[in-house]
Specification:
18-stranded parallel beta sheet
Length: 623
């Protein structure tokens, strides 16, 4: 027993010393620590992350990584939820000597596919590092897991093995099923070669929110930002380049709701050889209080395959404004401003779609309460070309406004539409210029089956089609079905053909009198040919303006005289003030309340004392 007591006395100091040592190591981290190099606090990244996970923090922590290139399994870190971390007690990983001085490399595996893994971790900043996952199958640099929130990746180079993979395992930033919020990725560079720059697949239940992707330079092979179930996502001011073959799903979003922003990005793609989506939004809903914004983007894409430059479906409460979208392909080019949506604003965009070997289409169908205004739309192909196709469907609400647009649709051997407007309800279409040209079916303005009265005023419509078809080459084709009883009122328009082929007006009212549901007055209607108006009910032709007036009872205050434009073949329908024929459009309209500006923003008279308005989209003064 005495020997046992002596042993206890001998061991007591040792135990106390060991307890002190372990207590010291168990203390929360606070301050600045070094990783790697000579005499560091931690020999490698994994050791530092283990200490962080075990000890937590009691204040702001900075890990300074010594200059050099480091590789292997000791230079990856899975950071768990950090005890004590907060907006004040942040954790930062950065080079000791500034950006460009540290590279962390690892060949990813199925179990360790990351350099940094933020596993429910929050308030972590990774900055100024080069992260290189060199795995040929697994190539993720940063992975977000669970509720990881309030993390920042800034000014890093996220790179690794290059190739043509379309696997999500090669996404440089990867998240799946995550629920965290306020994660930011700013000022980073993504060199070419990854399948995805960002693959962010949130939880469909508790969704991640307010992810910010800003000021990055991205050269992903397959997709730049691919995101499902991310609310309040912000994609801003990024420079995105694709100059390799294969498919390109650039910005591809599904159910990214609330205040989504895709703003001021520069997107360039060339040599693309498979299906292309420039910006794809599907079931992305804003609200009256949080309208989604797709604004200020510049996108130029060229391909040899099918292209969807902008593809928006089932998305509500959005603003598509001040963008420049240019898409060229030797195959078919499609763009969908919004399909099956409502409360969409499409304002002040330049949209240029060109197919050199097939057709090009611009759709905006099955919508209501929309505003498509102040856009310059050019659609060209060597087959079919649709300038703007808003196929409406809801008779219980006003479909929308289409105003102050310049629309040019030029095709060849297939159907050309300038503006195709079916099932309109309470629509106002004004101050637009629309020019079409093609050698087959060619309609400058086509409308039918109106469900409530529609109003077209101060538009300039010119058909340059060359087909000899009486019913297939028409400047204004209007088919109002008597079942609905809705009328369309055409006022202050310039409606003309450039050649004697085809027909100026194709009208159907469901009765022998083609003017019953199609009401025209104060217009300039002109064709150099003998087919002035076609009565679709009786299949009869009015061969002149007087004959048409007699048959329809329309246009008692209108005239028929050659208009004068600056450059018709290029679709420039601005009046030529030096041509004496411009007087046929000047001062011949009637005042329309509310239409106090022309397509260029010039004042248009709305009262007698202010003067007489001009016909067509422009106010002007002849020389």
């Amino acid at each position: 027993m005495k020997h046992f007591n002596k042993l206890k006395k001998a061991l007591l100091p040792i135990c106390l010393m060991l307890f002190g040592v372990f207590s010291a190591f168990a203390q929360p981290l606070n301050g600045t620590y070094t990783i790697g190099g000579t005499s560091p606090n931690y020999a490698d990244l994994s050791t530092a992350v283990t200490a962080l996970n075990n000890n937590g923090v009691s204040g702001p922590v900075i890990f300074n990584i010594r200059s050099g290139s480091y590789s292997g399994s000791n230079w990856v870190g899975s950071i768990n939820s950090i005890t004590g971390a907060s907006a004040t007690n942040t954790v930062t990983f950065q080079p000791e000597s500034g950006a460009g001085t540290v590279t962390l490399a690892f060949a990813g595996t199925s179990s360790t596919n990351y350099i940094f893994r933020l596993n429910n971790a929050s308030y972590v900043t990774i900055k100024d590092l080069t992260l290189s996952n060199t795995g040929t199958t697994y190539g993720t640099d940063v992975m977000l897991v669970g509720s990881a929130s309030n993390n920042t990746v800034d000014n890093c180079v996220l790179t690794g093995n290059t190739g043509t993979s379309t696997s999500t395992n090669k996404a440089r930033v990867y998240a799946s099923g995550n629920t965290g919020s306020n994660n930011t990725f700013t000022n980073n560079t993504f060199p070419a070669g990854s399948g995805y720059a960002f693959y962010l697949y949130g939880s469909s239940g508790t969704r991640p929110s307010n992810t910010l992707i800003e000021n990055n330079t991205i050269s992903a092979y397959y997709s730049s930002v691919y995101s499902f179930y991310n609310d309040d996502l912000k994609i801003r001011n990024n420079t995105i380049t694709k100059n390799t073959s294969g498919a390109f799903y650039n910005i591809y979003l599904y159910e990214c709701d609330s205040a989504l922003e895709i703003t001021n990005n520069t997107i360039t793609g060339s040599s693309i050889s498979s299906t292309t989506y420039g910006i794809y939004r599907y079931y992305c809903d804003g609200s009256a209080a949080k309208r989604q914004k797709i604004t200020g983007n510049s996108m130029t894409l060229s391909s040899t395959s099918t292209m969807y430059a902008i593809n928006f479906y089932y998305s509500n409460y959005d603003s598509i404004a001040n963008n420049n979208f240019v898409a060229t392909s030797s195959s078919t080019v499609y763009s969908y401003l919004n399909m099956y949506g409502n409360n969409t604003k499409v304002l002040n965009n330049t949209i240029t779609l060109t197919s050199t070997g097939s057709s090009a289409y611009l759709y905006s169908q099955y919508n209501y309460n929309y505003d498509i205004s102040y856009n310059k739309i050019t659609v060209k192909s060597n087959s079919a070309a649709y300038g703007l196709y808003p196929y409406n469907y809801n008779s219980s609400v006003t479909n929308g406004v289409i105003s102050n647009n310049n629309i040019v649709a030029i095709g060849s051997s297939s159907t050309v539409y300038g503006l195709y407007n079916y099932y309109g309800s309470g629509m106002r279409i004004f101050n637009n210029t629309i020019y079409t040209r093609g050698s087959s079916t060619c309609y400058t303005y086509i409308a039918g089956y109106n469900m409530a009265d529609n109003y077209l005023y101060n538009n300039t419509l010119v058909n340059g089609g060359t087909s000899t078809s009486t019913t297939g080459n028409v400047t204004l084709y209007a088919y109002n079905y008597s079942y609905y009883g809705a009328k369309t009122y055409y006022t202050n328009n310039v409606i003309s053909k450039t050649s004697s082929n085809g027909t100026l007006l194709y009208l159907y009212s469901g009765t022998p009198n083609m003017g019953d549901l199609q009401v025209f007055d104060y217009n300039n209607l002109y064709t150099p040919g003998a087919n002035f108006a076609y009565n679709a009910y009786s299949a009869s032709i009015s061969s002149s303006f007087p004959a048409y007036r007699t048959a329809s009872g329309n246009d008692r205050n209108s005239l028929s005289y050659p208009p004068a434009f600056m450059n018709v073949t290029n679709g420039d329908l601005m009046p030529n003030p030096a041509d004496s024929n411009c007087w046929s459009m000047h001062g011949r309209g009637i005042h329309i309340a509310g239409n106090d500006k022309d397509i260029s923003g010039n004042t248009r008279p709305t009262t007698t004392g202010a003067g007489v308005p001009d016909l067509g989209a422009y106010e002007f003064t002849p020389n």
